[in-house]
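Query form — protein Bacteriocin

QUESTION: What is the three-dimensional structure of this chain?
INPUT:
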Amino acid sequence: MDSELTDVVGGRNTWQQNVSGVAGAAAGGAALGAVVGGPAGAFLGAHYGPILWTAVTGFTGGF
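ANSWER: The structure tokens for Bacteriocin are given below.
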């Protein structure tokens, strides 16, 4: 198990890519949320889209 962890390479994204990714996730989440639930859905999508993006990027070694 320990040998597998030593092979993980992170930090592949620059800060510009991270800012762009979060902004895109917020916009995409808001757009999808607006279609599904109107203004309240847009708010929730804009809130949870970047959280999901951050989780996926962190789990895949982007930070």
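ADDITIONAL NOTE: The mean pLDDT is 87.
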